[in-house]
Specification:
Radius of gyration: 29 Å
CATH topology of the largest domain: Rossmann fold
Largest sheet: 8 strands, mixed
Number of domains: 3
Number of helices: 19
Length: 576
């Protein structure tokens, strides 16, 4: 079957959830915002349970967890099924959440489909693994749900720090989570008779997945139930609501039902409106999953988090941050015996006064839609700057350039003949180093406090290629991003334009970014004629001028895609 006729822009969320519902909850929030803006949403998931979709009307196609398949034959079969589905649905965009799946590399239908990654908080080591294994290189855009400063601060690699700082592939968009409406809170209040109690404690261990073979959720539930049975010297009526999650629902049968009722303990396997329940609770006892923590922070109750081992995230570091920013208590899961003491303190303590976390789901949805509308120009971009350090009539040249909208990103630089600061109109206060000769040592370059380097070359290729690339890689190892520009001394309009066109036509030989050096005796009429010619060249072609900042962004993006995926799952072969 061929591709379907897509009259409405369609977005596929390609998700994988093994031990919780976090990726799905976040994706559903974003999907709801995108649907409001007129997009058709379909979920293609790998999950053991799809109960979280019960509250929504989205179309859902679920397949087994591909990494759990026992043979290449099974993997190949399901890859063929997924490829058929994607090819038939013909999406305008595919969105994934946090963990790339190496099985999707073998799906031809994804090769030409734009892909976006939503990256929630992960450890610095995980980000560097994503980078060097080439996983980031698969995506057209990566939305990171924390600030740039916090994300970069936990990295060790200077190169990854610089790339994330300079690349426009990464958008540090802030938090995305579900915010329940007042009507949902009222339904939870009525369902669990919250008004009949002085305090309500909600306990949740996520969807109930196990980490490294140990069901820590069971340890948490045992501790809370023991506390409920033994609570003394507390003259208020307290109820305990334990949400086990669908993967630990079997634990409910472990406890005596009559005993639970006597101690005001309610156990449920799954609560579709958990976010609303967390919002109205007086105390929340949680595993520190991103979504449930963010949702609980929107309420006014006390939070007790129980960090432990989790895949590609440092839960202790996360809890330290939450404690400092939002007055959240936490106890490492190995110290679970301390939970009852902290729980009693939380029941007595007044409601904490903390700032609400901003939910950026709507803004991210708008960014995604704008991204979908962009026309990708790719290699037709080039940098063009004028070096006017020796020219007296600088303002007249700048004003003439401003006549043409297509030349709005032309840069003006001032460069001397040694390692120095480069004064740019579009980089703010951040210094950029100009290197005129590779004879200058890497040490002399890195003494300058900037993290951006411009290598000056000329149209005669006086640079030695090997030396240049060795220098560039040495700089990258120090976290310094570099671009090479071809410097063209201005002579006449016709001659300079001819050199520029020759360089553009020979991108493999020359650096297709330019600085036009205007000398003090250059003829102004010839300069203006050259500017007219550049504008005409842009009108008659699909070429586009980049600013210097955009050029550094593009080089950083190229660094993301330089590293190739290392296959860490089943190897898939066509079997005869």
């Amino acid at each position: 079957m061929g591709k379907s006729l897509n009259t409405k822009q369609r977005v596929i969320f390609l998700l994988k959830n093994g031990i919780g519902f976090g990726h799905f909850r976040r994706a559903l929030v974003l999907a709801s915002e995108l649907e409001k803006k007129g997009l058709e949403i379909i979920f293609l998931s790998q999950a053991k349970s799809t109960r979280i979709f019960d509250e929504y009307k989205f179309k859902v196609i679920n397949v087994p967890l591909l990494h759990s398949l026992k043979s290449n034959n099974a993997a190949l079969a399901f890859n063929s099924v997924i490829n058929f589905i994607i090819e038939h649905l013909n999406p305008s965009l595919v969105i994934e959440d946090t963990y790339s799946d190496d099985y999707y590399l073998n799906i031809p239908a994804l090769a030409t489909t734009p892909r976006i990654l939503i990256l929630r908080r992960v450890s610095g080591d995980a980000i560097e693994e994503f980078f060097y294994s080439g996983k980031f290189g698969q995506y057209d855009m990566i939305y990171v749900m924390e600030s740039k400063e916090l994300c970069i601060d936990k990295l060790k690699s200077p190169l990854v720090k610089s790339v994330l700082d300079n690349s426009d592939l990464f958008d540090f968009c802030g938090d995305i989570f579900f915010q329940p409406e007042e009507s949902m809170k009222q339904r939870m209040n009525h369902k669990y008779k919250v008004d009949q109690f002085d305090k309500t404690v909600v306990v949740n261990g996520g969807a109930g997945g196990w980490h490294l073979g140990e069901n820590v959720c069971e340890l948490i539930f045992d501790s809370v139930i023991e506390f409920a049975k033994n609570i003394k010297n507390y003259n208020q009526k307290v109820q305990f609501i334990i949400v086990t999650g669908p993967y630990s629902e079997h634990l409910i049968s472990k406890y005596d039902e009559v005993e639970l009722v006597n101690y005001q303990i309610t156990m449920v396997g799954y609560e579709g409106n958990l976010s609303a329940l967390l919002n109205i609770a007086d105390v929340c006892v949680l595993r520190p999953g991103y979504n449930t923590t963010m949702e609980a922070l929107q309420g006014e109750g006390q939070l007790i988090l129980l960090p432990g081992i989790s895949y590609m995230e440092d839960q202790k570091e996360w809890c330290d941050y939450l404690h400092n920013e939002f007055m959240v208590d936490f106890i490492p899961i190995e110290d679970i015996k301390k939970l009852q003491k902290v729980l009693l303190k939380s029941l007595i303590a007044p409601k904490p006064k903390r700032e609400k976390v901003r939910n950026n789901a709507c803004e991210v949805a708008e960014k995604i839609i704008r991204r979908m509308k962009l026309r990708v120009i790719g290699n037709n971009n080039f940098l063009l700057a004028f070096n006017l350090i020796d020219y007296k009539e600088k303002n007249s040249i700048k004003q003439y350039v401003q006549r043409y909208p297509r030349l709005a990103r032309v840069s003006f630089v001032q460069k001397d003949q040694s390692v120095s600061g480069l004064n740019l109109q579009d980089t703010g206060a951040e210094p950029v180093v100009v290197v005129n000769s590779l004879q200058q040592s890497i040490h002399s370059i890195t003494e300058f406090m900037g993290r951006k380097i411009i290598f000056y070359n000329d149209s005669d290729l006086s640079f030695l290629r090997k030396q240049q690339y060795e220098a560039i890689y040495d700089l990258e190892s120090l976290g310094i991003i570099s671009i090479e520009v071809t410097e063209i001394p201005f002579t006449t309009s016709e001659r300079t334009l001819h050199i520029l066109q020759n360089v553009i036509a020979n991108r493999r030989k020359y650096a297709p970014d330019f600085v036009i050096k205007i000398s003090q005796d250059s003829d102004q009429n010839e300069i203006l004629k050259f500017i007219d010619s550049i504008h005409l060249l842009l009108e008659e072609s699909n070429l586009r001028i980049m600013s210097i900042n955009e050029s550094f962004n593009e080089v950083s993006n190229q660094a993301v895609g330089r590293y190739r995926w290392n296959y860490d799952g089943l190897e898939i072969r066509n079997l005869s």
